[in-house]
Specification:
There is one protein chain. Helices cover about 55% and strands about 0% of the residues. The chain has five helices and no strands. Helix 2 packs across helix 3.
């Protein structure tokens, strides 16, 4: 479906030389992507061990057209090629959750065993422990403050007070 927006109505399309146009429409970005993909496909063919010949080049051209059509169907004026490539690289390099466990077979060698059975704590024990911890911290702060005061008093000269 064509857009009715004048800005995007004009496609950046090269139709070929004047009075001898191509029978297909291809955007400029498609030509650039196609050339890069064709060189990549030829390189992969050589690495796999396929020699250079008519049929290998024809299959490379067919593969290039399919891959280029796939890539250019995913890009448009709202999602340019650079954004699609950035998204692809981020997807490939994103940290993944490990699905396989680390280590070997499970062993009970490091389990702590107690002779006594665990007992259920009575209600309010956690609150009492928190209160006890808070009181201990308050007492520690008071002691530190008293120690600081005593240190200041030792430094004072008789008859001269330092500002508190």
């Amino acid at each position: 479906m064509r857009t009715d927006d004048e800005v995007y109505r004009v496609d950046a399309v090269w139709l070929g030389p004047p009075k001898a146009t191509f029978p297909w429409r291809a955007r400029y970005v498609a030509w650039g992507v196609g050339i890069a993909v064709f060189l990549l496909v030829l390189t992969v063919e050589r690495q796999v061990g396929i020699g250079f010949g008519f049929f290998s080049t024809a299959w490379a051209l067919i593969g290039t057209v399919l891959i280029t059509r796939f890539i250019t169907s995913r890009i448009n004026h709202e999602r340019p090629l650079s954004a699609a490539m950035t998204m692809l690289s981020r997807e490939l390099t994103a940290p993944r959750e490990r699905t396989s466990g680390a280590g070997g077979a499970a062993s009970a060698a490091r389990l702590r065993v107690s002779r006594e059975r665990p007992r259920k704590r009575p209600k309010g024990v956690k609150r009492a422990e928190r209160e006890q911890r808070r009181r201990a911290q308050d007492q520690q702060k008071r002691r530190q403050q008293q120690d600081r005061r005593q240190q200041r008093r030792k430094k004072e000269v008789r008859g001269v007070r330092t500002p508190a």
